[in-house]
Amino acid sequence: MLYKLGDFFICSSSSNGGGGGCQPSNAGVNLAITVFAALVIAAAMYSTTRGRLKSPWSRRKRKHALTPQQWRNLFTPDGKLRDGVKFLKKVRSGGVDASIRSEVWPFLLGVYELNTCKEERDKLRTQGRKKYEKLRRQCRKLVGESSSNGDSHSQGMDSAESEEVVSARESLSSEEINSSPSPMNSGVLLEEEEATPGSGSTRFIDPNISDSESSDSDSSRSQDPPELSQSQTFPFPSSENEESSAVQSSEDFSTWQRIIRLDAIRANGDWIPYSQPQAEVSEERAVRSAEAVGLKDYEHLEACRIFHASRLVAVLEAYALYDPEIGYCQGMSDLLSPIIAVMSEDHEAFWCFVGFMRKARHNFRLDETGIRRQLNRVSKIIKSKDSHLYKHLEKLQAEDCFFVYRMVVVLFRRELTFQQTICLWEVMWADQAAIRSGIGKSSAWNRIRQRAPPPTEDLLLYAIAASVLQRRKQIIEKYSSMDEIIRECNNMAGQLDVWKLLDDAHDLVVSVHDKIETPTTTTTTITMSSSSSSSLHHK
């Protein structure tokens, strides 16, 4: 007997010896089914992937995180990375294993160039520690001046001895953001509760600003900090600029200090399960740390969160002096907290934060030009990808995308869990590192582009647009005001799949990047050298 399975005919003889008719054997049928199934699967894969790049972040294709063994194998005997392309490709496809994040992040954030050897990095690390300690001494000096002027918030914090009690290598951490989304009514408010009047800790954006004012012009980008000339190669300010920065900041420092302490005390503890050594800090050590930086009103906190709050205060005060144009604004503690949780030493956390703030600092300018530029970019992505959704947003006068303001300011920190946030940031940092180092345009990188998207400086914005597009049906069918969309965005917290988000963001990069991208200003790297000068990088 003859059997047809798809385009295959199977004929088998009877084993009973009773006639010449074809009988189907089990082996023959099984073989036919296997071959046919393989063809069906191959055809399905072809039809779904034809015409688009393979995303390294899809559930089907996602790789494992960079492991300690893989990390060690990437280095030559003198401590140089053998293959920067392989390193960044691995990180952007699966992130980094938790046990090596403190080693990997300085490379991703531009604290170390990819081509440095161990000896060079050791020297830069020592120099970085000295520069950080000098900034901390300046903080104590300013605190002392505030105390002498009768500032009750600063009394008891001017003793050099107090901070020496807790050495830099004793740093640990603890974080706590207000886990429930803050109210965002008329206009867009990052956070309202407990804001200090006149302190600048509450950030508004004017919904009436036109799109033309949020263009990608040079005027939409802030100036680099005075001490961060692009011609310099090290992120450490010179002593002359350092002193002038401190003098210029002295009038603002007590205000920054109040806001920093308020935000540090309120930081949440979602990092605790992922940073066990820091979670187990003793109460004695935590109290010493709090006294060293003059932290008050922490009695209701557990020891690890007191310690984390103290570290936040120390690093954020130092950064306020390092970059006095930005100083401190609410939301910066949200960005620092995961770094503090991973980096065990304050001076290393500080320089990683400097690297992170290369681009994120534009989110905290008082004129909000950096925020408007990014919201304008999200709007362009949505318009290019989904004109129907964009027209609905226009009807609601929400096409400026101010409903995603909070996502932009704190880089999804409120919408994702601690672990999800780190995964997203690591992929984003790997993209930025590829562009910063020139690897993204190399022939070696181009060879892998058939299986991965090109790197982009604005991966975050594509992810934000993707999160909105994932909810297009609800937005179009159910929502009739921007306030309702704002509530929907706030309700995303804890509901997002970060790898699906990255997969959708990749699709947007592939489909609309070239349509909306405009030339950007020249960028520079934060690389450490023996000179006591500095440099900032883009986004």
What is the number of helical segments per DSSP (H or I, 4+ residues)?
A: 21
| Strand order in space, largest sheet | 1-2
* Radius of gyration, in angstroms, nearest whole number: 27 Å
Structural class: mainly alpha
Low-confidence stretches: 2-22, 40-52, 152-223, 226-234, 236-247, 519-539
For the termini, the CA-CA separation is 69 Å
The amount of beta strand, in percent, is under 5%
Can you lay out the helices and strands and say which pair or pack?
Layout: E1 2-5, E2 8-11, H1 26-49, H2 68-73, H3 84-94, H4 101-108, H5 118-148, H6 160-164, E3 188-189, E4 204-205, H7 239-266, H8 276-279, H9 283-293, H10 303-322, H11 332-342, H12 346-360, H13 369-385, H14 387-395, H15 405-409, H16 418-437, H17 443-446, H18 459-469, H19 472-478, H20 482-490, H21 498-516
Antiparallel strand pairs: 1-2, 3-4
Description:
With 539 residues, this protein is mainly alpha-helical. The chain has 21 helices and four strands. The chain has helices spanning 26-49, 68-73, 84-94, 101-108, 118-148, 160-164, 239-266, 276-279, 283-293, 303-322, 332-342, 346-360, 369-385, 387-395, 405-409, 418-437, 443-446, 459-469, 472-478, 482-490, 498-516; strands spanning 2-5, 8-11, 188-189, 204-205. A two-stranded antiparallel sheet has the order 1-2. A two-stranded antiparallel ribbon has the order 3-4. Strand 1 (2-5) and strand 2 (8-11) form a beta hairpin. The longest helix has 31 residues, at 118-148. The radius of gyration is 27 Å and the shape is globular. Mean pLDDT is 74; it is low at 2-22, 40-52, 152-223, 226-234, 236-247 and 519-539. This is Rab-GAP TBC domain-containing protein. InterPro entries: Rab-GAP-TBC_dom, Rab-GAP_TBC_sf. Residues 95-432 form the Rab-GAP TBC domain. Residues 142-250 are annotated as: Disordered. One of its GO terms (molecular function) is GTPase activator activity.
